[in-house]
User: What shape does this take?
Amino acid sequence: MTESNHHHEKCRELFERLSEYLDRELDEETCSEIEAHIDRCEPCKVCMKTLKRTVDVCRNLKQEQVPPDFSRHLRELIGQLAEGGKRG
Ligand SMILES: [Zn+2]
Assistant: This one.
């Protein structure tokens, strides 16, 4: 009985905003929207954990702003995770 009330297209949309979310660039409403989705979506939950860890590591290394390169790296990672969560 696996009910999937969401489409992976929605996940991809969300993934694209995750880096902004992690950088706290989004408004509160969008943040809670993302959080609500992640709460119900296992692939997104796993993705979020990985990203958060990556961001934490990066922030610990440098207590400055995240370099532009990092955002690109994050997008690549998101892309990989999005591909991995897709089937068929
Ligand atoms: Zn999702």
